[in-house]
Amino acid sequence: MDKVVKSEAEWRVQLSPEEFRVLRQAGTERPFTGEYVDTKTVGVYSCRACGTELFRSETKFESHCGWPSFFEPTKSDAVTLIEDRTLGMTRVEVRCATCDSHLGHVFHGEGYATPTDDRYCINSVSLTLKPA
C-alpha cells in the first residue's frame, strides 16, 4: 500500500477529536473504556486513519491490561516500531506503517502464553474491526 500523507488540518477533518488525539498526537485512551477491549468477534482490525490491515482476531488475547492485546501484526511490515522515552520510561511505540498513526505500544517477555511472548497493546480508537 502507498504511504498516506496528509496535513494536520486534513487529519482533523477526517478524525474525531479523540481519534486525532490518539492517532496523530500519540495519546492514550483510558484503560477498559475502548470498544474492542472485550470483543471476541472474528475479523480483521485495520488502522482507523487509513484502513491498512493491522491485526487479525486470531492473534487477539486476554491480557487484562485494559486495551486490546495482540501477539503479532498481520504482516511484520504493517507496523513500525519506534523507541519511546516519554513518561520517564523506555517503551516501544507501535505506529501504522502506511500513515504513521500512533496505535499503542508493544511489550516483550511478560510471560503470556502466546506464540511470540509479545503484547501489542493497542488503543481501540486506533482501530476499526471488519467482522469475518
Question: What is the number of E strands?
Answer: 9
CATH superfamily: Peptide methionine sulfoxide reductase
Given the structure, what is the number of helices? 2
Q: How much helical structure, as a percent, in the residues?
A: 10-25%
Strand content bin: 25-35%
Q: Please, what is the average pLDDT?
A: 95
First and last CA, distance: 22 Å
Query: Can you write the helix and strand succession as a string?
Result: HHEEEEEEEEE
Keywords: Metal-binding, Oxidoreductase, Zinc
Catalytic activity: L-methionyl-[protein] + [thioredoxin]-disulfide + H2O = L-methionyl-(R)-S-oxide-[protein] + [thioredoxin]-dithiol
Domain MsrB: 8-132
Cofactor: Zn(2+)
Task: Provide a brief overview of the structure.
This protein has helices at 8-14, 17-23; strands at residues 43-47, 53-56, 60-61, 69-70, 79-84, 91-96, 102-108, 118-122, 127-131. The chain is mainly β and 132 residues long. The radius of gyration is 14 Å and the shape is globular.
Description:
The chain has one domain (8-131): Metal Binding Protein, Guanine Nucleotide Exchange Factor, Chain A (Beta Complex). It is built from 2 helices and 9 strands. The protein has helices at 8-14, 17-23; strands spanning 43-47, 53-56, 60-61, 69-70, 79-84, 91-96, 102-108, 118-122, 127-131. It has 132 residues and is mainly β. The radius of gyration is 14 Å and the shape is globular. Strands 3-4-8-7-6-5 form a 6-stranded antiparallel beta sheet, with no helix packed on it. A 3-stranded antiparallel beta sheet has the order 2-1-9, with no helix packed on it. Helices cover 11% and strands 32% of the residues. The two termini are 22 Å apart. Its EC number is 1.8.4.12. Its cofactor is Zn(2+).
